[in-house]
Design brief:
Length: about 375
């Protein structure tokens, strides 16, 4: 996990536990206040002395979480959003009609679906490639001018790993920006901006909050440039912001992220390793396994763990996968990921047509429960599976 942050000379653990160490100047409170006001006083001289006008654009309650994210990702600025989707979609809405985007074949399905629809309506040219293969990205960049390369690594739900440093270098040579959905890597395991990316995106609903009780998203930028200002303006115009209460709850969740992510990574590695030896298992997809196709790049760009997400493919096909999900007791059958409780999901059922996800696959989001209890629950569900 990353150490020492520019504006806060302590480790990520200390940065998170103390939420950047800020004390509320008005009250000396050790927890920042929640600002519920929607509007701010205009001065007698007609200016806004506080610099704030109206809360649809921003709210001071967002600042502590944004400050922590900016420091963790080592960016110039950070913004909270109403959801991960709001954060990601705002990046694409900041592009101009005619711009070309390269995106991964393995990515969060709802964003892929939205992107296909939006690209057609907005006039974006969209090229999907397997971004875990740098040569495919290279070939796509050579096909014509590109404005943005979107990456997601590890990529949900097959956990393919894309080489952020190599792709960022290539993109730069072609004048393209790189944005990375780093939700599943978390700001602790990978820092895309340090590897050359321009923007990093998180569904803060997942590991950042970590308790399955806040929907939120975030972007962090390497440079506070014109493109970023366009994103900030769009956030304010669209009101794509979280409620102040959600922002405060998110910050509380972030204070223990380092502990939760460590446990989730340890549980995932343990379960991946045990399951891959089970006779009913065809394949475990987890970049932490030495023979996983993404392991070498993951080792290079992930530090402190390989994430809490894995997928399992069963020899008996969809019927076994669905049986296992139906018969676990500790693992909860639910969508989403990154919470303290472990979740299990048959992804092909939710992703529908066009998904690269095989129907013999279950996606597992490892929580922070005791690892042998989690494993035993999966094994007992497998025992009664149809042959
Ligand atoms: N990115 C990834 C990798 C996700 O898994 C998700 C949600 O599952 C999102 C983005 C979207 O985030 P949200 O649900 O906060 O809109």
């Amino acid at each position: 996990m990353s150490d020492s942050h520019d504006s806060f000379p302590f480790s990520a653990a200390t940065l998170l536990a103390q939420a950047h160490g800020a004390i509320d100047p008005a009250t000396d409170a050790v927890v920042p206040p929640i600002h519920v006001a929607t509007t701010y006083l205009r001065g007698a001289d007609n200016s806004y002395p506080s610099g704030r006008v109206y809360s649809r654009a921003d709210n001071p309650t967002y600042l502590p979480a944004e400050q922590v994210l900016k420091a963790l990702e080592q960016g110039e600025d950070a913004l909270l959003f109403a959801s991960g989707m709001a954060a990601a979609c705002t990046v694409f809405q900041a592009l101009a009609p005619g711009d070309r985007v390269i995106a991964p074949t393995v990515m969060y399905w709802a964003l892929r679906n939205w992107l296909q629809q939006f690209a057609a309506q907005w006039g974006l040219e969209l090229t999907f490639v397997d971004t875990s293969d740098v040569n495919q990205v290279k070939a796509a960049l050579a096909q014509g001018p590109t404005r943005l390369v979107w990456l997601e690594t590890p990529g949900n739900p097959l956990w393919t790993v894309s080489d952020i440093a190599e792709i960022s270098q290539l993109a730069k040579q072609h004048g393209a920006l790189v944005a990375v959905d780093s939700t599943c890597a978390t700001p602790l395991l990978t820092q895309p901006l340090k590897l050359g990316a321009d923007i990093v995106m998180h569904s803060a609903t997942k590991y950042l909050n970590g308790h399955s009780d806040v929907i939120s998203g975030a972007l962090v930028t390497a440079k506070n440039d014109a493109f970023w200002q366009q994103i900030r303006t769009l956030r304010g115009q669209l009101g794509a912001v979280p409620s102040p209460h959600d922002a405060a709850q998110l910050l509380r969740g972030m204070r223990t992220m380092h502990l939760r992510v460590r446990e989730a990574c340890n549980n995932a590695l343990y379960i991946a390793d045990r399951l891959q030896r089970h006779r009913a298992v065809k394949q475990v997809l987890y970049p932490g396994l030495p023979d996983d196709s993404g392991h070498a790049v993951a080792k290079k760009q992930m530090h402190g763990g390989f994430g809490g997400m894995l997928s399992v493919r069963f020899r008996g096909g969809a019927k076994v996968a669905i049986h296992v999900a139906a018969n676990t007791k500790l693992w909860k059958r639910a969508t989403s990921l990154g919470g303290v409780e472990s979740l299990i999901e048959h992804r092909a059922s939710i992703e529908g047509e066009g998904t690269p996800c095989p129907d013999d696959l279950l996606r597992l989001s490892c929580g922070i429960e005791q690892r042998d209890e989690l494993l035993a629950d999966l094994l007992q569900a497998l025992e009664s599976a149809p042959a």
